[in-house]
Write a structure and sequence with these properties.
DNA-binding, 147 residues, 2 domains, disordered C terminus, two-stranded antiparallel sheet, mainly alpha, Multidrug-efflux Transporter Regulator, Chain: A, Domain 2, 3% strand, homodimer
Chain lengths: 147, 147
DNA sequence: CTTGAAGCTATAGTTGCTAGAGACATTAGC
DNA sequence: GCTAATGTCTCTAGCAACTATAGCTTCAAG
C-alpha cells in the first residue's frame, strides 16, 4: 500500500516540502509516481525517512546522515565507520552543552544584577558591553559557535 | 584616533566582512570615510561592536541585539525591557541544554550497544531508524530545533 | 616609486529548510 | 456526475548570520 507525500509526511512527522527537499539533495531516492505525476511512497521509504528525521533530531548534519545511510545500504562493512560518526557527534554535543551551561551562568548573573532598576544602572546592558566582566572560569572562547 | 576596519576587527575580534555586514543590516551606523573612501571608526564604535559581539557570543539573535542597542541609546526608560529580553534568552538556553542532555544520553546508549561489532548487529543504525526506542523520559519533541 | 597588503563594492554561496505563485490531481459531499 | 475544497506539482525566492569570491582602488613600508 502506497502513501502520497502528505500521508508520508504525517507518518514521519516531517513537513511535505522537507521531503521534496531531501529528494532534491539525494537523501531520499526518487519515488514512483502515480498516473497523475504524484509521488508514491512505500514502507521502506517511511523507514528511511524516519531514520533521517531521528538523526536530524539528534543533531547529525545532513552529510553525516548521508554517510550513515550509505553504510546501512550495504551492511557488510565494519561498524567502525558508523561508530566514529556517532562518536564525533557525541563529542560535539558535549561541547555544546558545556558552552551553553557557561552561557546560562552568565545570563543568570546578568539578570541577578539587573533586578528591576532603570537602564542607567542596568547591568544587562553594561555587562554585555564589557567582556572582561565575565567570570574567568566560564570565559567564552573565540569564534566557537554556540550551537 | 581613528581605526580602519581591519584594526577595528582585530580589536573587537570580529571578522572584517562581518563588520560590513552589520553595517549593511543597520546594526552599526555608517562610519566616517577617509579621503580614499575607507571606513574610519572611533572608540564609541568599538564599544558598540564589542557589545554586539558579546551578545552574539551569548546567543542573542540579531533582532534582540537591535532592541538592546536601541534601549542603551536612550537609557532613561525602565530596565524591564532589557531584562525581559535576557530572560527570554535564558529560557531558550535552558531548553537547548535539556534537549542536548537527552541527545547525549541517546548517543551514549547507541555507542554502548554498538561496541565494535559489525553493521549487521550495529545498533547505531537500528536505533536511529526507530524513534520508539528512545527512553520515554527524554523523548525528543516535535519540531523543536536542537540548537 | 614601487610593491604588496589592506580596503572597496557587488554578488553568490553556505545549511537546512520554509514560503509563495500558479497550475494540475484527487477526493468528498450533494 | 458535478463541483468545491483540498492536495500536489514545479519553480523560485527567502530566512539567519554570515563567508567567500572577483576585480578593482588605496595606502604604508622600503
Amino acid at each position: 500500500m502506497m502513501l502520497t507525500i502528505g500521508k508520508l509526511a504525517g507518518a514521519a512527522r516531517v513537513k511535505v516540502p522537507t521531503i521534496r527537499y531531501y529528494e532534491q539533495i539525494g537523501l531520499l531516492p526518487q519515488p514512483e509516481r502515480s498516473a497523475g505525476n504524484q509521488r508514491l511512497y512505500d514502507r521502506a521509504m517511511l523507514d528511511r525517512l524516519a531514520f533521517i528525521r531521528h538523526a536530524r533530531d539528534l543533531g547529525f548534519p545532513i552529510e553525516a546522515i548521508r554517510d550513515l545511510l550509505s553504510l546501512s545500504d550495504g551492511p557488510d562493512q565494519p561498524c567502525a565507520a558508523a561508530d566514529s560518526i556517532a562518536k564525533i557527534q557525541l563529542a560535539d554535543v558535549e561541547a555544546r552543552i558545556a558552552r551553553l551551561v557557561a552561557l546560562k551562568a552568565e545570563l543568570e548573573r546578568m539578570l541577578a544584577q539587573c533586578a528591576g532598576g532603570c537602564i542607567a544602572d542596568c547591568r544587562v546592558i553594561e555587562v554585555l558591553g564589557d567582556h572582561s566582566l565575565c567570570t574567568g572560569e566560564h570565559r567564552l572562547q573565540d569564534a566557537a559557535p554556540v550551537m
